[in-house]
Amino acid sequence: MFSGKTIVITGSARGIGKVCAQNFLTKGGTVVVSDWDSLLLEQTLDEFRSLKKGKVFGRVCDVKEKLQVKNLAEFSFKETGNLDIWINNAGIIKDDLLLRMSEEKWDEVFNVNLKGAFLGTQAASKYMIKKEWGRIINVGSVSGFYGNGGQSNYSSAKAGLMALTKSCARELASRNITVNCVASGFIDNQFTAHVPQDTREKILATIPLKINRNPEEAISSAIHFFASEEADWITGATLRVDGGMMIGF
Q1: Would 1 be classed as within a structural domain?
Q2: Does residue 147 form part of some domain?
Q3: Residues facing residue 246 across a β-bridge
Q4: Which of 154, 184, 186, 187 is labelled catalytic?
Q5: Do 51 and 31 contact (CB within 8 A), yes or no?
Q6: In the chain, helix, strand, coil percent, each to 5?
Q7: What pTM, to 2 d.p., does this model score?
Q8: Residue spans of beta strands (DSSP E) within the chain
Q9: Is 154 a catalytic residue?
Q10: Domain extent for 78
């Protein structure tokens, strides 16, 4: 399905990005795995190489740094000859109540979750414009819809990501480049490990649809759809993949 396509995924040594990378490899894609954590990146690359499916490359990248993002795009193109699909997945959480929220926590979350996506979109689109084809997919969160308490930084950044998606979609549509966003629901993984167990259980109980597979795989499926030819007339959209958590928003 993705044979001949190069897919770059930021923050893909763990979590949603890792699941997404594995699925693209299974479908024949050439995947560039990227993460700021060099040790974890190498472990993930070793794991993927053992699958012997698709082609996999790796590059350390801190998405807050423009030069590193630019180098990631350049590396991907030079190593594979293409840069077709770019997924802005890297994200962090630094929760705190409004009155205790430090400037550092605010800036760091914005720099990774929003600025990182801006830099990635900017770097990738330069290659896609020349080819007049591309897919850019941002990984958002339902927090951007409803503004979660204790997450003024994260919710604001994810709301901004949806607006960035729309603006870039308008600008790049004439070059046959689509830009879409997948808004993830609550996932009980390492990123929510700081949430008390009883709170996690209460949140999970509010989700109407129950799932028999890893929710990260459901999000990966939505990302794959936006990356595919089947989504060639969809751009500027945000798709909630949350089990119905945000019905009515």
Answers
A1: no
A2: yes
A3: none
A4: 154
A5: no
A6: 50, 15, 30
A7: 0.95
A8: 6-9, 30-35, 55-60, 85-88, 134-141, 177-184, 238-241
A9: yes
A10: 6-240
